[in-house]
Amino acid sequence: KESAYQMSRELAEDWGVPLNLVKKDAPIRN
Fold first, then answer.
1. CA-CA 20 to 30 A from 16: which of 1, 23, 24, 29?
2. 29 to 1, 2, 15: CA distances (angstroms)
3. Does residue 14 sit in helix, strand or coil?
4. How far, CA to CA in Å, does 11 sit from each of 15, 17, 18, 27?
5. Rounded to an integer, what distance in angstroms lies between the CA atom of residue 18 and that of residue 30?
6. Calpha distance 30→26 (Å, rounded)
7. What is the pLDDT of residue 2?
């Protein structure tokens, strides 16, 4: 089951937006 978190993660990657704007403990770029 896709969580809202997982969907947000995929969208953030699509937009090229740092995930820490969506979820501070999981940035897409380290």
1. 1
2. 25, 22, 13
3. helix
4. 6, 8, 10, 13
5. 10
6. 9
7. 72
